[in-house]
Structure prediction request, 1168 residues.
Amino acid sequence: MSHISPVLWQYLVKWLTNFALFPPEASKIAPQMDALYFFIVLVSLVGLTIVILLVTSFSILYSKKRHPVAVQIEGSTLLEATWTIIPLGLFLVMFVWGALIYFRVYTPPANAMNIYVVGKQWMWKAEHPGGQHEINALHIPINRPIQLTLISQDVFHSFSIPAFRVKREAIPGRYTSVWFEATTPGTYHLFCTQYCGTEHSHMIGEVVALTPDDYKKWLASSTSGSSLAQNGERLFASLSCAACHNTKPDARGPSLVNVYGSKLRLSNGQTVIADDAYLREAILSPSQHITQGFAPIMPTYQGQISEEGVIALVEFIKNLNSDYRVQQTTTTTDLLPESEGKAASGGPAAAGQNPAGKGMVTQ
Amino acid sequence: MSDSPVMTQGVMEAAKHAHPPYQRHHFESVAQQADATNFAMWIFLLTEIMFFGGLFTAYLILRNWYYPAFVAASHQLNIGWGTGNTAVLISSSFTMAMGVWCAETRRKSGLVLSLVLTFLLGLVFLGIKTIEYSEKIEKHHVPGFHYSVQSFVNPASDPDSVAYGDKPLAMDMARKTELYFFLYFAMTGMHALHMIIGIAILGYMIFRARAGAYTNGHVTFVENFGLYWHFVDIIWIFLFPLLYLISRHQ
Amino acid sequence: MSSATIVNLPDQSTAKIPKMNYLSKENGLLSWLLTGDHKRIAILYLISISFFFFIGGALAGLIRLELLTPQSDLMATDTYNKIFSMHGIIMIFFFLVPSVPATLGNFFIPMMLGAKDLALPKINLLSWYLYVAAGILALYSMMTGGVDTGWTFTTPLSTHYVNTNVITTGIAIFIAGFSSIFTGLNFIVTIHKMRAPGMTWFRMPLFVWGHYATSILMILGTPVLAIALVLVVLERTVGIGVFDPAKGGDPLLFQHLFWFYSHPAVYIMILPGMGVISEVISTFSRKRVFGYTAVAFSSVAIAVFGFFVWAHHMFIMGISNYSVLIFSLLTMLVAVPSAIKIFNWAFTLYKGSITFETPMLYAFGFMGLFTIGGMTGVFLGTSGTDIHLTETYFIVAHFHFVMVGGMLMAFLAGLHFWWPKMTGRMYPEKISQLAALVTFIGFNLTFFPQFILGTLGMPRRYASYPPEFQVLNVFSTAGATILGVGYLLPVLYLTWSLKYGEIAGDNPWQATGLEWQTQSPPLTENFREIPIMDHEAYDYEWLERQKEKEVASVG
Prediction:
């Protein structure tokens, strides 16, 4: 290689290392999606080859030199039916196969660990159930289904992990979700793929898939002192939610104990399942989500709680399986002299540090 | 140069009939011209339907989501004015239809009279619309400009809401009335814009009709304008129940 | 002439351009600016869309230059965002949508039907003025700060989060939309009402069928885009809230309205090109198009199905799984008519007598590239693979294969094919064949690597990217350079040919369309007498008989 200049050689080496051709398959769904991908590639190649063969062979066989006079042919119903039905059949196979994968990607299993992700111009913020926050990074254990619940604080973003073959739009004002199960430990690209303004191309990060042991270490090292549900509990207290949402017989609002996942009958006659999206909506625009038998007195919290705050509240309500915690928040607020310094001492709700209003973020 | 190999029609025959002055050179006959321009007008109205269709879609979705807000906000509209305007527009359609008939039967003074009546009825419609708009402006019901939800969170303060016995809306629902009023202004505004364009053309037509322009057998322009005018009318026929009569089926 | 071509030129030593023609009828700038002649308006359009094509092309060059390296070093990210937005807006609304319809369609639809002009010549001229006004406004908004929303104007980004010239650009596109509506309206009326005696629906050339389908899409789709843009402008100025989730609006509604136009717009861009390909392939294989009816109806089928697939742009945006099913299925159905067309064109060659002039080379290029573009569309219509591939360079490569590989190739095929008719002179054959080849190679080098980039997950609209994507991007930029040369060549030699090209005569290709049965360049009224259509479209035997008659009458 001495005849190649060293500079050029260096470039070549750099190039070859910078030359990826296929993304790693690092999730359970990836090989399934790639199987379909290669099936369509195969069909495309066969189709393209047929077209090229037809065009070149006819061009050679029937060039004016060889075939000076054209034979006029009207058409052939049989042939045309063939190239209508065969592509249609193939396309339908792809449609069904694709739909099966689509439904898998967007139907999380019940035992999935839920991580909330908030997109904003121009960063991704992940909220782990243990209270860990991350920006432009996502640490996850392998071999465990992970569900992401996504929302955007401003414009459309899109959360894309090419190595896992999953992607989901983060929409303002609405939860969306996606799930995956990583199989190979490693660090992978995380992209925002929906154009979201000036720094769109910098809204990138990395997804770190860890072995269960490493994941435990990571959890321990990046804890913020209180879990997401505890943050929600503090917020619940500071907003005095328990003043109405308690189990007393004269409560003005429905009890929230074990409400998550249950079927609710609303005052307008509808029946709904209380999922993440419902809880969020019920906090921000309560008047359309009044449980039957209650008066529409709840004020809206639109504009008063940030998306992270709502997430913390939802997570708290999700984990609310006994009335004890609610009472705790009541006592906490009752003890407070005024709405001011809610950093009450005592009471597990404010067990952590100081400001109870910490969750009440307004960026 | 060889002659074109295409077979030809009797050239002499074509040259024989004299063309009326209003026949454009590229049409073979007056009938073809009338037919083509008429067809063009229908196609144009089709695009207009698609144009309004976008707004109707938005209306459909938002009304479905925020029905209570739409009901309460629609109580702010005066059904009397709305009904009056519907009557005015239907009458103007009648006078317009009379105009087309007069043009076809070559009655010049009838045509001018019909056009003037249509013109005046159009102005009456816009006048009533102005009165309605100014009520909204006074009550701060114009979206985006110091919009106030007072009439909906506290209906007792507003005689229009009292008349319907409206219950107070929760704040989050009351805010959605702004969407109703936006749709109200967008849809009626777009309709009014079509009326204004129509009235301007009517003015021009009255001017031409007095000079005898449409009573010489060339009536396509009047006919096509008639189609436009009826179309604008029909849009209103949809707008009136959708915007004014939301709670009237109960 | 050698036997390997069908070019049939008059004796160059004696031939002359006919003295009376649409170009020589009147002189002076005003005679052009106030003309009602569809042929002159087509020429006006040709000049203006070429101008916008090269502006859009220059912007594309800047994009490729920036992407040569992983960092955003040539320009800041917001400059890059403005450049790709303007590239998209100019190429789509000011080049692709009017490209074939407003130039070749405008020029040849009346001639193919045996009419003297389009039904509404004044509306036709108005449509050009609207186009120019819109173009000037778009350029003005580009000069005074540009717009960085992407050509899709996604809300709430475009309404609440950027402070660039969204309003002026929106108005520009609104006006351009009306230009396109008027063109479509004119075509529909002309095709319905202005056909010559004997010109039944199934005797019309497939070029006309393609434009008929396009016109339906134009008149029904464009108004919806118009109202969507009006709402964006109102949302920005007044804050109406229809697209604002904070006020209870629905940000997805904008995308529904936008794609209701913009997906059919893809067919607005490709169907006229397919019409051109039908003409070219038939002419240069001296054969009737295989299965004329199927090709005609497949155009209409694409137009009809095209209206019901828009939500496939939103598979990952949280629309319900069941609507994904429906829209994915309909997308598969709309792919079938395209497949039919490709195979019918291939079989048109069967037992033909084929020659390889430039338009035919471009048509072959179209068939190959459109097959790839179409099949990669199936990757995206399949809901499962769409998740991984959407919003990446795979999409970029896919629609450039369809739009540039398909439509632009078809446009160039048509331009070369009809150039002798429009100007009366031939383009130089050898260099134009070279240009076709250069374009084909440059195109593949530019856009094929982008499929791989997309599969790797490289997101679109990124000013900077991870270094492992660099090599493929360098290929792409190198290809773009070649492609640029391929597009500049025609400008040079076509301009040259205006003065020095060989005199073409009436029908250099021995084609059957009515437009070839009159002088080149045509008279202002197209035909000396109104033709009577007494044969099927693409009837080469009829043409032979005509020639024999002519010889007999001369002899």
About this structure: The radius of gyration of chain A is 29 Å. Chain A touches chain C through 92 residues (CB under 8 Å). The longest helix of chain A spans residues 29-61.
